[in-house]
Amino acid sequence: MKLFHKTLPRALFSRIAGVVLCTLAVTASADPLTEPFRARNLSPPMAIFGVPSWDTGLGAEMPSRLALSWEMASYFRFVNADSEQLIVDGETWRASLIYQRLVAESWTIGAELPMIRQSGGVLDDVIDAWHSTFDLPDGKRNRRPEDELQLFYTDGTGPVYFRSQPDNGLGDLQLSAARSFGAQDEWLFKLTLKLPTGDDALLAGSGATDLGATLLRTGTATWRSHAAGWFWGGSLLRIGQPETLPAQAREWVAVGMVGASWQPFPRLGFKAQLDLHTAFYDSRLEELGDAAMQATVGGWWAVDERRTLTVAVIEDLIVRAAPDITLQVNFAWSL
Q1: Residue ranges covered by each domain of the chain
Q2: What is the pTM of this model?
Q3: 3: which DSSP letter?
């Protein structure tokens, strides 16, 4: 049995929290009406891969953008099939620093560096109450101790991954280059490269390089005399074999998204979005070898022309390969 445990000074998290608070006073997004949520599947076996985010391009009037994104995902699955067994019980916290810059007409480059915390979490009581109130399936969550961390996988040869101690670590760096095109730059094509800079023993990264290609389409409309927006996109991802989690990863993964927004107030709007992806692994376990679908609902507040705060809740629609719930807060500052 292998127990992976590395420590990162708590001061690093304190510094990030301080940056978030400072950014709240000075933050925003390019066009929140047509900007999709940065939704991801944060189930630990899937979160290690370099799934591209749904970014829009920048314009000459605001040629750069700095953003901080904070996510907290709660999950529980305890399953086995044939010789495989998987336990994912806990929470993943992800704090990401994102920077984008216009480098030529219609061309934008970007970088995203996350920090990951795996822990037992604090949401178990809330999720149990939610499932009970609306008679939703809980995957036997209420039969396990609350607020504990258990990440375990075996392929039948013995325990090959195990973690029960909370820890922090840097994630994989993702670089991107995108070009907007069309009469009103309503199309965007983006290439991404995820580098193995993260702590793969913490499942903060995969230990391998991933390549992605994304096509995004956005547009605006009017609904009930107010501005509305819509967006859809697709990505094709070529992933490397994970170093720590030995389940056999597939070479190619497809990702899709569709969503819409509505702005009934001058600085306040709402969004809804569906995200899905094909399986990341060749596995008999549905949690690894099946597709996943998530629904995101939330809204944004435009502090001014340059600063925007976005808040969202992400719920799994297929109760297997994605977290039960993910909370997301994003601050963006266009420069």
Answers
A1: 10-334
A2: 0.86
A3: B
